[in-house]
Amino acid sequence: MTRRLLAILTLSAAFAVTGAPRARAAALPPAATPDRALPPGATGAVDDDDRADDLYERARDLIEQGHYDRALAALDRILRMNGSRTDAALYWKAYSLAKLGQRADALSALADFQKRFADSRWLRDAKALDVELRQASGQKVSPDAESDDELKLLALRGLMNSDPDQAVATVEKMLAGPNSPKVKERALFVLSQSRSPRARDIIAATARTGNPDLQLKAIRYLGVMGGPENRQLLADIYRSVNDPAVKRSILRSFMVANDRDRLFAVAKTETDPSLRGEAVRQLGVMHAGAELGQLYQADSSAEVKKSILQAMFVGNDAAKLIELAKSERDPELRKTAIRNLGLMKRPETSSALTAIYGSDPSPEVRKAVVNALFLQNDASALVSLARAEKNAEMKNEIVSRLSLMKSKEATDYLIEILK
Fold first, then answer.
1. Which tens digit of pLDDT belongs to each residue from 58-102?
2. 408 and 344 housed in the same domain
3. Alpha-carbon gap, residue 292 to 279, rounded angstroms
4. Containing domain of residue 206, as a range?
5. With b meaning 16 or more CB within 10 Å and e meaning fewer, what string describes 157-188?
């Protein structure tokens, strides 16, 4: 096909496009789309543990909002994955079924739970729910229970204002007692607002050995509270547990607490690839460019290096990405750096991409540059490259991108080809 015929066809297609962004997204290869949903280290799919965590958070939010039927769908997906969240998902499935009045199904789920997860930290809650359902004598769980929960929370907030010491003691009893998960979680939040040393001790104890959901909440609050003592406690818990969900929560709390030293240490020494990738990602969120640069130079794994490049993008470290896009010898890593530069719409990235195109004869690298400039919607740079390009295949590649851009410069160039 001649360039003239290609221009006629692509120009017609350009005029038919109603929205350039949609056209650009459709034209991108999978690797060129922003991969914010991918954890560092993943190349084609989200890590199973991360996916289970996301589904679990969604289910818990739906339960909190009273959408129990919708929560069941997410919980069943977690159960099919059969990962580290299975016991928690099965407990909340039974809880949701109970709230929907499906007592027999809820009891069946609880019996399955106690058979499969005799050592689970959810066992105590599961047994308490089982007793509650059997005492209900076939009736739905009383809606008054939720009203009672709200009343308790209102009373607790009032007590925290009038007598903080008494409120802290009350929360401690509530956390150890048979209150609903909702009450316990809200009570722990109220506790996190207190500056009492005893309140901090209770949160610390919950972060160590509490109900799994409460444990994650407590870890999050320790990160928000910050301070050397809380950061050290988080580090101690990280070393003492095996649960990946708990470890990921601690890494995120390190980021919230601005503890880049511990994140850097985990990124260097952690043997679990997903946890190492999480530490790298959190360093990116913290804009820890120096640490990420050291990790990149020290590591020999291409997958780890890809995760670091992604973290550099998250951290908006254009300078380091430009350096690596020019100097990296591994073609795939170099293309990853180039793609990330394309997602950063800044003047220095555009000029760097143009320079790379002029200095590298590799068709694959040049195509990556063309795609990156396309992502930036930089028609001017692409037109300049097309004018200077002598290779027919590469010129067609550039023109095909220009045909999808709703830009006067692109359109003018296409018309110029037709003359």
1. 999 899 888 999 999 999 999 999 888 899 999 999 999 998 989
2. yes
3. 10
4. 152-257
5. eebbeeebeebbebbbebbeeebbbbbbbbbb
DSSP states along 61-88: HHHHTT-HHHHHHHHHHHHHHTSTTHHH
Select the more confidently predicted residue: 416 or 143.
Answer: 416
Encoded amino acid at 363, one letter:
P
The residue among 217, 233, 257 that closes a domain is: 257
CA distance linking residue 381 with residue 379, whole number of Å: 6
Structure-token pair, residue 151:
């009343």
Q: Is pLDDT at 147 greater than 90 in this prediction? A: no
| Rounded Cα distance, 32 and 25, in Å | 9
- CA 216/CA 252 separation, integer angstroms: 11
Task: Give the side-chain half-sphere CA count within 13 A for 295.
Answer: 32
Q: How big is the CA angle at 166 (ends 162 and 170), to the nearest 5 degrees?
A: 120
Residues shown for the chain:
419
How far from chain centre, in Å, is Cα 276?
Answer: 14
Q: What is the pLDDT of residue 38?
A: 41
Give me the half-sphere count of Cα atoms (radius 13 Å) on the Cβ side of residue 105. Answer: 14
pLDDT value at residue 47: 63
Query: Which CATH number characterizes residue 397's domain?
Result: 1.25.10.10
Number of domains in the chain: 3
Q: In the prediction, which pLDDT does 143 show?
A: 45
Which residues touch 239 (CB under 8 Å, ≥6 apart)?
none
DSSP letter for each residue of 215-260: HHHHHHHHHHH-SHHHHHHHHHHHHH---HHHHHHHHHHHHHTT-H
Does the reported pTM lie above 0.90?
no
| Residue 112 shares a structural domain with residue 156 | no
